[in-house]
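Progress against Task 2.4 (sequence-to-structure conversion) is shown through the following example record, which the project officer requested during the mid-term review.
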Amino acid sequence: MARRSVSRERLIAAQASAIFDVLADPSQHAAIDGSETVQGHLGKQARLSLGSTFAMRMRLWLPYRIKSRVLEFEENRLIAWGHFGGHRWRYELRPVDGKTLVVETFDWSTARLPFVIEAVGYPRRHLKNMERTLFRLAGLVETT
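Structure tokens generated for the chain above:
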């Protein structure tokens, strides 16, 4: 694969600040995770900021724990994190007519073993996971 990132987007009827508050709170990640691999956060965690770390309980066939670091951060506009594998998850928020366009990207261009990620088909499978994540995120923040 020449391009090593995949993205999905959704227009969410909520302010960027409300959406960003969910993304910057690791205790909310299990509630929005469309892959259902995130089981919960570990320890007490303050709101995320550039360089902060957070740990999550995960399950992909077997349970494990993972520690991630915030690699990109712009309040109410951009947050991205990654772990020892080198790949990252990025959320970009753009206001559009009183709503917010949220773009989720899985980026393995910086991965230590990108060919492994491609060989197991994770980029293709992750497209549906990202759609479910954005759906769940919308469900948490949209007002009726």
